[in-house]
Amino acid sequence: MQSRYDSLPIEGEITSETSPIPHDAWCVWRPQELARRVSGVKRPWCVVGGWALDLWHGAETRPHEDIEFTVLRAEFSLFRHALTGLRFHAVGNGEVRPLLRDEAPPADIAQVWCEDVAAGCWRADMMLEEGTPQTWIYKRDPSIRRPRCEMVQVTTDGIPYLAPEAVLLFKAKYRREKDEADFARAVPMLGKDRRRWLKACIAKADPRHVWLAAL
Questions:
Q1: Given a cut of 70, is residue 195 above it in pLDDT?
Q2: How many angstroms from the chain centroid is the CA of residue 31?
Q3: Chain segment 108-152, per-residue pLDDT in tens
Q4: Residues 39-98 pLDDT 10s
Q5: Are residues 145 and 178 in the same domain?
Q6: Rounded distance between C-alpha atoms, residue 201 and residue 205, angstroms
Q7: Is residue 77 part of a domain?
Q8: Shared domain check, 135 and 29
Q9: pTM here?
Q10: What SS3 class is residue 185?
Q11: Phi then psi for 90, rounded to 5 degrees?
Q12: How many domains does the chain have?
């Protein structure tokens, strides 16, 4: 069924002076809706963050205030064109700045918020990664890399998501309450190889990290 947002133009005319909507105005898509909207783009992408873990679990284990997904930086424009009715904002250095029509995110920007123009809210958080269609690269340490086919899994209904050990590697840096809860739920289900890889990666960044004992 066609959404009322599907008939909107790709983007309205915006300038660098355009003020974004409030930063807390999130009304996020579920993974199924995001997947539907980018289904025409036959290039690598995947859900990351807490939603990726829940896709792996096969159930929604907690509320999600946003939905994060990654695309290759070089292919940002393909996803931008597919996500009709949205405006895109570069996020970094404590600022949320609208991108001009056809403007590529600067090289130092790895996060783009997607604004639903008609609804006046944020729908998704797009992450730009530096890997290739064949190789996944950990952005905080490019020496950590693996074949993309090993790091991206797919649900039975075709939604790609980042492997749980990689999601937890990102979460290990912050250890927010939700990160701790996500880790506690995931650890008992991680296989030996996933645990070994995650432990080695965390230890490389912080040999005293408290999660190491549980791994």
A1: yes
A2: 11
A3: 999 999 999 999 999 999 999 999 999 999 999 999 999 999 999
A4: 999 999 999 999 999 999 999 999 999 999 999 999 999 999 999 999 999 999 889 999
A5: no
A6: 7
A7: yes
A8: yes
A9: 0.89
A10: helix
A11: -75, 135
A12: 2
Locate tokens 């991680």: which residue?
Answer: 190
- Which helix (H) or strand (E) segment holds residue 167: the answer is helix 164-171
Q: Same domain, yes or no, for 39 and 110?
A: yes
pLDDT value of position 211 = 98
Residue 43 lies in a domain: yes
Asked whether the beta carbons of 124 and 67 are under 8 A apart, the reply is: yes
- Residue entry with tokens 């300038």: 15
> 101 and 145: one domain?
yes
114: nearest Cα among 148, 95, 91, 143: 91
Q: Are the CB atoms for 146 and 193 separated by under 8 Å?
A: no
| 141: Cα separation from own chain's centroid | 17
* pLDDT interval class at 168 (50, 70, 90): very high
Residues near 89 by Cβ (< 8 Å), separated by ≥ 6? Answer: 20, 96, 97, 98, 99, 112, 113, 114, 115
